[in-house]
Amino acid sequence: MDFPKDFMWGVATSSYQIEGAVHADGRGESIWDRFTHTPGAIKDGSTGDVACDHYHRYREDVALMQSLGVKAYRFSVAWPRILPQGTGEVNQAGLDFYSRLVDALLEAGITPFVTLYHWDLPQALEDRGGWNNRDTAEAFAAYADVMTRRLGDRARYWMTHNEPWCTAFLGYDMGIFAPGIKDLKVTLQVSHHLLLSHGLAVPAMRANLGDGAAVGIAPNFMPVYPATDAPEDRAAARRLDGLFNRWFADPLFGKGYPQDTWDLYGENVPDVQPGDIETLAAPVDFLGVNYYNPGTVADAPDAPPPHLRDVSDPDLERTADRIIYPEGLYDILVQLHRDYNPPALYITENGAAFHDEPGEDSRVHDAGRIAFLEAHFAQAARALKAGVPLKGYFVWTLMDNFEWAAGYTLRYGITWVDFETQRRIPKDSALWYRDFIRKHS
Ligand code: FCB
Q: Which of 104, 130, 297, 366 could form a disulfide with 356 if both were Cys (CB 3.0 to 4.6 A apart)?
């Protein structure tokens, strides 16, 4: 596998999944605090109240990353730590935490990649309609301004949103993520406001960051394949590609909403005000790609719209929760490069959950995860060779953590976390990754 010497090998996390300390230093309530404390919302009844206690242990976690030789760390900022009410008064203690984290990373020779929104909306904003309220887009831009003003001298890589599809569809359509709403019309309005908030934030961030910084976004993408070569199945795959990928990427890259998907949504389409389409297409310096699995669909005329049937290959190997298809990473990278030609791409998340545990030797022999990562790295190398301007790769995730609706039942970490004692044990995959990075840089 060939990678440039300056390739950004990293790990990723997010605020609510690792920080804990939900009442510390003036942090406001987030929609995930509210949601996790709602009976029945989380598989194991758990919450992120403590999680990995990273808020108090960040120095240890930075030292762990340094020992693994990672070059970059993608983390997210908890908006309610910065603006407990979502807007208005800035909580200095919250800002100071991220400032200390950035300093610790730089001292350890690790480049910070900051995500502004990884799903923990201030509850105060949700109380006013959340992302369904257009004002939330303005509030986000103001928050982005505060963050880049304060940290922009030291943190030079920024992302607005993590996985807007998940924010909108899991949170507002399926209701399995906070805030737990089930309303397609609201979902599509939310998706529009998310993109709008990105477009409003980017120029404000750029103004604070000046030259030489990079601003992007990290959506999740899914390569979609037809069950057969029949025209009906190919059209079905095209529909799902529109619903999942193009609905977000087309407008971001100046193509407006895809007409076929717009038509599919009928009366549920969002209210788009004059100028929005131009605003949300603010040029980015890079596109982040979160990749986990592909989709394979057949046409299903008898199923409700959009008439799709999931026929993902039952013979493919699986992680604890998904099918494994490394070639999908290559396919989606090539597709995004071909259709949108962003100046740079990063894999901002890729990784796997397995039910691994420490053995009698107190080590975690997660051979499955090593094989998973190696196969996906090979596809990234293939994409580079095919001309995709891929600049980095962030493994999800540094350590086992609160996996949203699955609680602590899914372990995605390259580090084992004992949630009783907060002991961290680098799994074999972490040591393998350390050696891989060393060899390739
Ligand atoms: C992604 C999320 C991340 C984590 C992984 C497994 O969708 O961005 O927080 O939950 O999945």
A: 366
Whether residue 313 has pLDDT greater than 90: no
How many Å lie between the centroid of ligand 1 and the Cα of residue 404? 8
User: What is the pLDDT at residue 218?
Assistant: 99
Pairing of strands 415-418, 423-426: antiparallel
Residue 302 has pLDDT above 90, yes or no: yes
Q: What would the mean pLDDT of 106-114 be, rounded to a whole number?
A: 99
Q: Which CATH architecture has domain 8-440?
A: Alpha-Beta Barrel (3.20)
Report d(CA 28, CA 187) in Å as an integer. 25
pLDDT of residue 109: 98
Burial label, 336 (beta-carbon count in 10 A; 0-12, 13-18, 19+)? buried
Atom of ligand 1 nearest to the CA of 162: 8
Q: Which amino acid is at 270?
A: P
Tens digit of pLDDT for each residue in 199-218?
A: 999 999 999 999 999 999 99
Q: Does ligand 1 have an atom closer than 6 angstroms to the CB of 356?
A: no
Active site residue 374: no
Catalytic residue among 19, 29, 163, 403: 163
Q: Tell me, yes or no, if 267 is annotated catalytic.
A: no
pLDDT of 314 over the 90 cut: no
Q: Is the CB of 220 under 6 A from ligand 1?
A: yes
